[in-house]
Write a structure and sequence with these properties.
Largest sheet: 3 strands, antiparallel
Helix content: 40-55%
Length: 182
């Protein structure tokens, strides 16, 4: 994996984690190699998953290294936005980095035969869609969102249809059960 220094975190309370040592990640984005350095003492809530989704995507798991690196990228984007300067990486690049770290984690889990560390392709894409929707909602991360909109919508639409279909099916079953009681 391209982590020169592994992510080392400790829980500090209320859903927050803090790095206990510096983290260096070498990102090969196809153009240049970038070294992303995250200092010790950096705080993260890891995967910023809405609580209602924790049964499916809890805030910690095989993807926490990717979430930690992504959170730091988002903090830098916010700083640049607040200071009125160009960020070191665009929001699209930060989210692409997130997806690449997820892929690397899955590849590493396969190589080391660690089934707990696997992040299947469908889950990586779902996590990426989540961070891209998050970018749309955040003015510091919104720039460039529309270039990913077709992919985001192509993944979101069938999932939304599945959820709505499931809710309608449950509604129909409850109606039928209540109708049988009367």
């Amino acid at each position: 994996m391209p982590f020169a220094d592994r992510v080392r975190l400790r829980y500090v309370g209320r859903g927050w984690y803090e790095s206990t040592a510096p983290t260096n990640y070498v990102w090969r984005d196809g153009v240049i190699d970038r070294v992303i350095t995250i200092p010790a003492g950096t705080r993260s809530d890891l995967a910023s998953t809405p609580r209602i989704m924790w049964w499916f995507i809890p805030p910690t798991g095989a993807y926490e290294d990717a979430a930690f690196v992504h959170d730091e990228g988002c903090v830098e984007l916010r700083r640049a936005y607040d200071e009125g300067r160009a960020p070191q990486m665009t929001s699209r690049e930060v989210d692409a980095l997130f997806l690449d770290v997820l892929r690397e984690a899955d590849r590493h889990a396969c190589e080391t035969e660690d089934p707990e560390g696997r992040i299947p392709g469908w889950k990586r894409r779902l996590l990426w869609v989540g961070v891209r929707w998050g970018a749309l909602a955040n003015p510091a991360r919104r720039a460039g969102w529309w270039r990913d909109a077709p992919a985001v919508l192509a993944i979101t639409a069938p999932l939304l249809a599945l959820v709505v279909g499931a809710l309608l099916a449950v509604h129909a079953l409850v109606d039928a059960a209540l109708g049988a009681l009367m």
